[in-house]
Design a protein that fits this description.
alpha/beta; four-stranded antiparallel sheet; five-stranded parallel sheet; about 575 residues; single chain
């Protein structure tokens, strides 16, 4: 079976070699018997000192009762490298053991990329487990803002990383189409509708209503289509009719904007369905039956403090209506218990940090596992242009919307920029840089690297040189430091993808893309592809094609274009 992640394979092999050497030394009486101390095998910062390094000698000093250099010397005598990826191992510094890869390993990397093509980078780490990524889930009463834009890029890329790591992935948008915000939505639309026919001075707008111009537009659209017929209806009928009209309009707009942002969901889950199907009542009943709910001041409370929260939470208000928290418990119960997801990841704004422990605790309370629920909290975005904070919106009158952003910068730039920082870090989005056609713009820099490879291939083809199958022996001709550095970077892609999923942080993929582009540009500057030695030329062509595949696959994961010319 082909090894898809050669770096992981080599790392595991190095660890196995170390464990075997320790066990041999213990069997020979060179080390005292006992449990193997915890140690790491990692890629050192300076790979000229070795491709992998382990700290086993320092980690085992206490257990083996001897100095690290002596431990390392003994282990080096016990290592059996024949038949492995490694040509040699040696001691460095205070006792590190460094492993050096065979030239053959670098050739295998290029052979693997050639064999897998568009599938290069994918692994089976997830073993088919079901994972749901819920992200954006913007309030459907208005347009999406910058937080939603950032959450969309993070969530979609994270879902792709999980899918490429062997998980069954579902993308989901939770539509809050019930509760207080919908009541406020109806009241706001009603006021704007009545102002059309009675005048703005005759109808006061609620202080806590939605102030955006989008509410005026919706009310105006309803008036154009239906005239003043609502004036004859009751207050409640007016609000209901306007909310029933406005909500589908807004949801359709959300879908259009997200589609333009290259995000498609497997399911748009309506909160109202939880109430219609009795799921909210069900989880409330579960909590009651477990003795985790009690009545106080005419309301029903959940004993959240039993599961680590700072205070108990209301489930059913005095007026008999369930709270948003009760619906949220029901929604996540639906994810785990009814739809069978092994793991759920929610991408939320940092302002929801207080809700994390409460919801994870509630999963434990209803008999599920809070540990299977992960919350990615993302910080705020500040838009900048020409070094100054930028504010503009044709629609909301308050903040820049996702639609505004997509009118200002390409989707490629938006998705790349939003994934350049860890979700938990605040970020400045530089609108000026995002449209700049220079190497200072990171997405341009990466895309140009892909276009540069395509240009090399096109130029050679025009001169009559086409890529052919390359033998292992010919690939071994790639020994220049710039060639080896590029191959090493190509080899990192599978681990970068699975690592992004494991860490719930897709920003590592943009950093990888930039590093890969840098390695490619350096190779281009130091190693001429069109040389007289035909075998070397074909080997370098194979390296170019492999780099192109790794770069294109990384960009495809983020749904960013890989242009052939720029």
């Amino acid at each position: 079976m082909m090894v898809k992640d050669l770096i992981k394979d080599a790392s595991v092999q190095a660890r196995t070699l170390v464990v075997g050497a320790v066990e041999k030394a213990q069997a020979a009486g060179l080390f005292p018997a006992g449990e193997l101390p915890a140690f790491v095998v990692e890629i050192p910062g300076d790979v000229t000192h070795g491709d992998f390094a382990t700290n086993i000698a320092m980690a085992g000093a206490r257990a083996f009762k001897m100095a690290p250099p002596k431990i390392a010397a003994i282990l080096l005598e016990q290592l059996e490298l024949e038949g492995t990826h490694f040509s040699k191992a040696e001691m460095a510094g205070p006792g590190f053991i460094n492993f050096f890869l065979k030239e053959d390993w670098y050739a295998q990397v290029l052979e693997t990329v050639t064999a897998l093509g568009e599938d290069y980078g994918k692994t089976d780490e997830g073993a088919g487990k079901k994972v749901m990524i819920e992200f954006v889930s913007a309030n459907p009463t208005g347009p999406m803002h910058m937080g939603n834009a950032r959450g969309g890029a993070i969530g979609d890329c994270l879902a792709a990383a999980f899918a490429s790591s062997g998980y069954q992935v579902a993308r989901e948008f939770y539509v809050n189409d019930a509760g207080n915000q919908i009541e406020k939505f109806g009241v706001s639309l009603q006021a704007r509708y009545l102002q059309i026919f009675k005048g703005e001075n005759a109808v006061s707008f609620p202080e806590d209503g939605y102030q955006g111009d989008d509410i005026k537009v919706l009310a105006g659209r309803y008036a154009e289509q239906h005239g003043d017929k609502l004036l004859a209806l009751s207050d409640e009928e007016q609000k209901q009719a306007l909310a029933d009209f406005g909500l589908p309009e807004n949801i359709a707009a959300l879908k259009r904007d997200l589609s333009d942002y290259r995000i498609e969901y497997d399911l748009w889950f309506m909160e109202s369905e939880l109430h219609k199907t009795g799921q909210v009542d069900k989880v409330v009943g579960i909590l009651k039956n477990k003795g985790l709910a009690y009545e106080k001041d005419g309301a029903l409370w959940y004993k959240a403090t039993v599961f680590g929260a700072e205070k108990d939470e209301v489930l059913i208000r005095q007026n008999g209506n369930s709270t948003y928290f009760a619906a949220d418990i029901a929604y996540h119960y639906d994810k785990f218990a009814l739809r069978g997801f092994d793991r759920v990841v929610n991408v939320w704004g940092a302002d929801h940090h207080g809700h994390v422990a409460r919801l994870k605790g509630a999963m434990d309370a209803v008999g599920l596992s809070g540990d299977a629920l992960d919350i990615v909290l993302m910080q705020l975005v500040r838009l900048m242009k020409d070094g100054e904070p930028y504010r503009m919106s044709k629609r909301s009158g308050a903040s820049v919307t996702l639609r505004d952003l997509l009118d200002l910068v390409p989707a490629d730039a938006a998705r790349f920029f939003f994934n350049m920082h860890q979700p938990g870090a605040s970020m400045d989005f530089d609108l000026s840089l995002a449209v700049e056609q220079t190497s200072q713009n990171p997405v341009f820099y990466v895309q140009y690297a892909h276009a540069r490879i395509c240009s090399i291939l096109k130029k050679l083809a025009e001169g009559g040189t086409s890529p052919r199958d390359v033998s292992r022996e010919e690939l071994l001709l790639l020994t220049d430091p710039a060639e080896i550095a590029l191959i090493r970077k190509i080899a990192q892609l599978p681990g970068e993808i699975s690592g992004a999923a494991a860490r719930l942080d897709p920003s590592s993929l943009t950093r990888y893309a930039m590093d890969l582009a840098t390695a490619l540009h350096k190779f281009y500057g130091e190693c001429r592809v069109q040389v007289e030695d035909e075998a070397l030329m074909q080997a370098r062509l194979r390296l170019c094609i492999s780099a192109k595949s790794a770069l294109a696959n990384t960009l495809a994961l983020m749904k960013i274009g890989a242009p052939e010319s720029m």
